[in-house]
Structure formats: C-alpha cells, structure tokens
Design goal:
Elements (H helix, E strand, L loop, with lengths): L27 E4 L9 E11 L7 E7 L1 E6 L2 E6 L8 E7 L7 E11 L14 E6 L14 E4 L3 E3 L4 H5 L9 E4 L10 H4 L8 E2 L1 E5 L1 E2 L10 E4 L6 E5 L3 E6 L11 E3 L4 E22 L4 E7 L23 E6 L6 E3 L5 E11 L5 E12 L7 E4 L2 H16 L17 H14 L4 H12 L20 H17 L3 H19 L37 H21 L2 H21 L1 E2 L4 E2 L8 E2 H9 L5 H11 L6 E4 L2 E4 L6 H10 L11 H8 L23 H9 L2 E3 L7 E3 L8 E6 L6 E7 L5 E7 L5 E5 L2 E5 L2 E7 L1
Parallel strand pairs: 6-15, 11-21, 14-15, 28-30, 32-36
Antiparallel strand pairs: 1-13, 2-7, 2-9, 3-6, 3-8, 4-5, 4-7, 9-12, 10-11, 16-24, 17-19, 18-24, 19-22, 19-23, 19-24, 20-21, 20-23, 25-33, 26-27, 29-30, 31-32, 33-34, 34-35, 35-38, 36-37
Helix pairs in contact: 4-5, 4-6, 5-6, 6-7, 6-8, 7-8, 8-9, 8-10, 10-11, 10-12
C-alpha cells in the first residue's frame, strides 16, 4: 500500500532527477532592466524553443521572487515558489513534456513582487526569476540574457489599506488592479514571441547564477533548495448562486453571467454556499472604460457592522477585501488576480461608461494543499457529521504552502495554531509533509538568544516565548505519530537551545520568571492581550505548566534518541516546577490551582494543564475538572472565585485533561460551542465567539482530531505509532464507525450499542502492529486483520 510520500504529483509536476540543491546552477537569475528592485511590479518572461524529436520528459526547476506562474504554449503549468526565507528559498520542479510539441514552443512566466504591500508571510530579496533544465538536453531552456522580459503596466497593486477598511488586524495580500487598457493581452502568444525586442520586450538582465545553501560563490542571495511539497490543488468549482442584484434586469442575470447597459451602476452578490479559497476568473466583453470591483467577504454585515447568522442576506451588505478591473472594450478578456482570495460572499460591482459590458462567465479555481481525507467518522448523531465536515473544510482552507491561522486575515504560520493543525493532518490524512515543513520553518526562525519566532515565514518578526515551548511539543507529537526518528533527531539541537533559554528563566523557587516579548497563552476576556495573570517577577501557573510539558516531552525524546543526561536534567527541572506550583499556587479552600502565588485568580487554562501534567495528584483530578469546567461564560463565578474559561483554541488542552483524568465520556458534552456555530450558519470554525474577526481559524478545528481519538478511541500506544490503542468513549451515541490512516494500513472500527446494554465492536488492525482495546477498564489484545468482539 502506497503511503502519502508516493502520492502522484500533479500534471506536469516532476520529482527532481538531480540534486540541484548541492551544486551551483548554470542558469542565471534574471530580472527586468531599469525596473525597481524591491518596489511593486508585475513582469512577463518568455523564451521560444524550437524542438524536434521530443524527449520522454522535459524536467525543469523553477523559482522566483516573490512569486511566479509558469506557462508553456499558453497553458498554465504550475506556480511557486512555496513560502520560505532567503536561506531556504524553494524551487519547484515540473515536467514540461505534456505541454510541448514539435516545432516552436513558448515557455513563459508571470512574476510579481508586491514590495512593502506583499502579505506579511512573504519574505523577499528583489524581483527575479530562474529556470534550470534538469539534464543537458533540457538546459537549452535555462534562464540567461537570451530570455525576454517586459514590465506589465496593466497589472498593479491598489492603494487600499484593508486594515483600515475592515477595522481589524490584517496581514494578507493587497488588492490588485488590472487595467485592460494597458494590459499586454497577447504576451503569451506566438505572435508576441515574434515581436521585436524594441517594442515592449527587453533582453533580460542577469543577476548571477543560482546558488544552493552549500555554495557561497554566487552574488545572488537566494539559497535554493527543492520544495518537498506537491503543487497546490487547483480545480474549478461552482461560482455560487446569485442571492441579490441591483441595476440590471433580473432576466439579464443567468447564474454568474449578466449584461449591464451603458452609463449604469449595477451589482451582483454571489453566495458560494461555504467559505472557499480560490482564484476568481471573470470573462468580459465590451465595456470600455467601465470599472469593475470584486469584493470578497467571509460574511455579510448589518448596519452596525455585525455578522449575525452567516446565511442571512436581507438587510446586510458586503465589506471586505477587493480587486478592481478596467475593461478595454475587447472581446473575451480574462481577468484574474495573481493571488488567491478567500470568500463565501463575492460581490461584483460595475459602473459602465458609454458601452455596455457583458460579464460572460465567472470561473472559480479552488486552491489549497492537496490533502486527501483518509479518515472517516460517522455516528448516530447527524450533527456530528456536520461538525466533521466543517472541521475538515476549516483545516483544508488553512493549509496551503504553509499552515496558516486564517486564510482571509493573516495567512501566517503560528506555532500555537500549527501544532493542532499538524495533529489533524496526521489523524485525517496520514500526510506529514506540510507538518515537516512547519517544524523545519520554525526551527529556522530561532534568533541567537535561542527562542523561535512565533510565526514563520514572516517579514515582520514576532516572538511569543510560550510558542517556542509548543514547538518542542510539535516535535514530540511528530515522534509519537510518525515513523521517522531521523527527522526528530535533526531537530533536537533546536529543542535543546529553546529549553536552555527557558532554563535560564526558571526562578529559584521553580516557577518561570518574567519573560521578554509576548508571553501569550490564550484569548480570554480577562487575560490581558492573551497574557495570563502574573506576579511581579512574571510568575504564572499557566506559563510554568507549558514549560513543564515541554521539559517532559523533550526528556522523552532525549531518553530514546539523544542524551540521557539531558533527559535527567529536564525531568529534574520539571519536578522542581511541579513542586513549586503545588506549594505556591494550590489553593486548598478553592480546590484549584491559582494563576499566581497570590491565589486571587483562577482559570480553566491552568487547571486543565495541571490535571493533564499530573501537577494535581490523580486522586484530586476529577474534582478539579468538575469544578473548573462547571462554567459556561467567559468569566463566571464558581462560589466566590472568578474563573476564566478556555477559548475555542485552548479547549484542545482541556480535552487532554479530560482524557488523562478518565473523564473522556464527558467529551461530547463539551462540543456545544461548535453546535452553536452551526446554528449561526458558519461553514468553517471561527477564531473566537461572537463578535469574531475571523470566520475560519484552524485552531478551532480540533474536534475532528478528538472525534477520532476520544470518541472512536484510536490513538498511538507507543512512539512512532508502533503500537495501537483503541479506547472508545461513546457517551450517549448508539453507533460509531471510524477509520484512521496508519503507515501500515488503515485502522477501522465500528461500534453498535445493543438494546440489552452490551456493545458490539468490529475492529480491523493493520498487519504486524501490536494493538489492544480498552473497554470499561478491561484490556483485550487484538490480532491483525478484522475481528468482532461482544463487549459488556
């Protein structure tokens, strides 16, 4: 059975034949002469090849700064490079053979650099492009000064500040403007290839040869390495349904096609039915001098700017990111932004001049990381199927060339979000390539002090020290779920540097002391900026508990794969911190761990972590969780105590406490916030309760992970998933069936609760993997293959 590493790549995409990352490339980075190096610009590059006796394959390696889209004979081949930093700049590999023919062939690329207006996740040196043939015969395509280039004056960046427009933090891409009056429509055609260089085309300027990270003799700054990821999924999906329009006769509106009379203002609002990440492609004829705006929104808003039920359109309007188009009057003009957009609602606003405009068609090209849903979950509760569906959509839309917190607002790979996203990927797809990318990227972000960035890649540095601890947890999670010990070893020098930094910040009393930068733990009403209460020297139960988790995770890695002496040091320091919390923060009267030694404030966050990590003794854990979770508002009184409730994000860690304390049967009752979001018409999970900025935040998608782990009960029983434990917690469900991918084959379960009170379990275990079933405290050894058990 082939695992995800052997999955087929997309059309035209090829695996590198030679290891170009270990040698200097013969190809040159090229650029547009006299164009600004770092200002916003869009460029077309092209070369004509005269080919006879086509080879079986024509493999090339391609990169650009910021981004490129590669074409052969006018057909889109692929895009890139995957986001990274200059020391790990990615190149993509494509087989051009399916797009070539005998005779003249045009290889073209649109390359853009959005300068200071690029998404915050975009790192850059300067505008440039490079293409390297894999073998000698293919090197006739290498970029050098035989290539032509032009600056595309008809495609640029809007000046709109979307943070101000939306009145919230925005770090995504800018709006684009495509002015058809100046756009070079046939740049990619054979006719354009025959144009004299003295017209729009120039001879490309060379910047220096491509350089791998191992070389140092090239003047270019991009240190190239192969992109280990597949090309992103790219397929057409329905454009949606028109739910409102104005300024045109309804008879002229046919789906996403319509005609607008001269000197008219009109608009059409389309509902995709669910949030999507895609490129819109609008085809227009006529309408010279018209102005067309495409506005994208997760939800419509009322007059007060509130979202409300996402399905409602009456009395609501669109407010969001937008692109603009100016038709030139030509026929069948194809307008498409260079960067994909996020929306459920898309509004097309048109103001025509003296000519009518015909919008012939709106194509929508979905794009995201090509995860395959290998897991499944079904039960007697139909609403859980909807939670599963929405969670998987959320996870997919927040995964492209990196994981990202939100595809609309930021597109940044934050460690706190990414840890949860990686676990969902392991459990639902078995594909760990994007997770390995994330672990690599965060490791690369460490500064000389030893701490990692909170998000990476990012051209704006940000540091959340607690996220460095969660990155250690990510490495440990990988070790538990994936059979790749060598990859874990590669990152243990990084985990050591991070923990050395924290060990220097551990106080004499055992708590973590005052930390620089932003010691975020959770978004909750009375954590100031996400920072939990601290004493004068930074003492915080939650932060110290996250430190304990990282120490124990790293101790386990060191004991098995590294340095047993370090493992002993980490265990000793974790024990010291544990003792400090018990002595300084346990409040006997409240029966809870307090947030600080002052014992004046309590939180679900600290108590959930304290249960999970056995800081609270086993015999008290159920009572503590019962008290800590008996609240439902953001800040509620339990007796005389103020108790902060965990956010959507931090409920992932609350669930870990439930599981550890033997209270997993209560898990299904904790899903009410997700059921409430369904009632609000959300098609992806929100960042926070209403009012929320983001309607799609992957840190809220963890129910998919726990429906498999907690309810169906499937989890690793030993590191590297070398053993399987199946411990279902069905709650009040009558039936459950599920599957989880495993490197040696799927793990499949189904449970049926009989009328007499017993439960029938059908379980299929992959060959050669030790497995056991735990049911009501009793252990049953499972054999490979399918088996049926009648359980009391």
């Amino acid at each position: 059975m082939c695992g995800p590493e052997l999955a087929a790549r997309g059309p035209g995409q090829a695996t590198a034949h030679r290891d170009w990352a270990r040698e200097r490339w013969a190809a040159q980075w090229i650029a547009c002469p006299e164009a600004p190096q770092r200002d916003a610009g869009v460029f077309h590059f092209r070369k004509t090849l005269d080919l006879t006796d086509l080879p079986k394959e024509f493999v090339v390696h391609v990169s650009g700064d910021n981004r490129f889209i590669l074409f052969v004979n006018g057909t889109r081949v692929g895009e890139g490079p995957a986001n990274s930093d200059l020391s790990h700049w990615k190149y993509e590999t494509f087989d051009l053979r399916p797009f070539l023919h005998n005779g003249k062939n045009v290889i073209g690329a649109t390359v853009w650099n959005f300068g200071t207006q690029a998404p915050v996740a975009q790192m850059t040196s300067r505008s440039g492009f490079i293409l390297q043939g894999d073998a000698q015969a293919e090197q006739i395509a290498n970029t050098d000064d035989s290539w032509q280039v032009e600056s595309e004056s008809g495609h640029g960046v809007l000046a709109a500040n979307f943070g101000s427009v939306l009145q919230a933090y925005y770090a995504g891409p800018p709006g684009e403007i495509i002015d058809g009056r100046h756009y070079h429509w046939d740049w990619n055609s054979a006719t354009a290839a025959s144009e004299a260089v003295a017209t729009r085309w120039r001879r490309a300027m060379t910047l220096g040869s491509g350089a791998a990270r191992e070389t140092s003799d090239s003047p270019t700054i991009w240190m190239l390495e192969p992109d280990p990821l597949p090309q992103m999924e790219y397929r057409e999906v329905p454009a949606g349904v028109a739910v409102a329009s104005s300024g045109l006769d309804s008879r002229d509106l046919q789906g996403s096609s319509f005609r607008i009379a001269p000197r008219t203002k009109a608009s059409v609002l389309l509902d995709a039915g669910a949030l999507t990440t895609a490129r819109p492609e609008i085809i227009c004829s006529g309408g010279a001098e018209a102005r067309v705006r495409l506005t994208y929104a997760e939800a419509l808003v009322d007059k007060q700017g509130k979202k409300g039920n996402r399905n409602e359109t009456q009395g609501r309007h669109i407010l969001g990111v937008f692109d603009e188009l100016i038709p030139d009057g030509g026929k069948h003009r194809y307008f498409m932004p260079l960067i994909w957009r996020t929306w459920r609602y898309l509004q097309i606003d048109v103001t025509t001049g003296d000519q009518p405009l015909e919008v012939e068609k709106l194509h929508v090209w979905f794009t995201a990381y090509p995860f395959r849903e290998e897991a499944r979950f079904a039960s007697s509760d139909p609403e859980l199927a909807k939670i599963w569906e929405v969670g998987w959509r959320t996870a997919r839309l927040c995964a492209h060339e990196t994981y990202m917190d939100t595809p609309y607002w930021e597109r940044l790979q934050y460690v706190g979000d990414t840890r949860i996203q990686a676990l969902i990927s392991y459990a639902m797809s078995g594909d760990d390539r994007l997770a390995r990318q994330a672990i690599d990227a965060i490791d690369s972000s460490r500064i000389p002090d030893g701490i990692t960035a909170s998000r990476y890649p990012s051209r704006l540095p940000q540091f959340i020290p607690t996220f460095s601890l969660l990155w250690v947890g990510m490495v440990h999670d990988f070790f538990i779920y994936r059979d790749n010990a060598e990859f874990v070893r590669e990152h243990m020098p990084g985990t050591r540097v991070v923990l050395d930094w924290f060990l220097r910040h551990q106080r004499a009393d055992g708590l973590v002391g005052k930390l620089p930068w932003w010691p975020f733990v959770d978004w909750t009403e009375d954590f100031q900026g996400g920072v939990p209460p601290q004493d004068a020297d930074g003492g915080s139960a939650s932060i110290t508990l996250e430190f304990i988790e990282a120490l124990r995770d790293a101790a386990g890695l060191e004991q098995r794969l590294g340095d047993p002496e370090r493992a002993h040091l980490y265990s000793d320091r974790a024990d010291k911190a544990t003792g400090a919390l018990r002595k300084l923060c346990w409040d006997e009267k409240a029966g809870l761990i307090a947030d600080t030694p002052a014992r004046s404030h309590f939180s679900q966050q600290a108590n959930a972590l304290a249960v999970w990590l056995d800081v609270i003794p086993r015999e008290k854990q159920r009572d503590v969780l019962a008290r800590a979770l008996a609240v439902h508002s953001a800040l509620t009184k339990t007796g005389d105590l103020a108790l902060s409730q965990a956010s959507y994000y931090f409920r992932f860690y609350v669930t870990r406490a439930l599981e550890h304390a033997g209270m997993a049967d209560a898990y299904l009752s904790t899903l009410q916030p997700w059921r409430d979001m369904l009632k609000m018409g959300l098609t992806t999970w929100a960042e926070t309760p209403e009012p929320t900025r983001s309607d799609s935040h992957a840190w809220s998608a963890h129910p998919n992970f726990d429906l498999l782990r907690m309810v169906a009960g499937i989890r690793p029983g030993a590191p590297q998933f070398s053993e399987i434990v199946i411990e279902p917690h069905l709650g009040n469900l009558h039936s459950v069936s599920a599957a989880v991918p495993h490197p040696k084959g799927p793990i499949e379960v189904s449970y049926s609760v009989e009328l007499g009170g017993g439960t029938s379990a059908k379980i299929c275990v992959p060959e050669g993997v030790p497995a056991r079933l735990i049911w009501k405290g009793r252990t049953y050894i499972l054999r490979s293959g399918e088996q049926t058990l009648e359980l009391p």
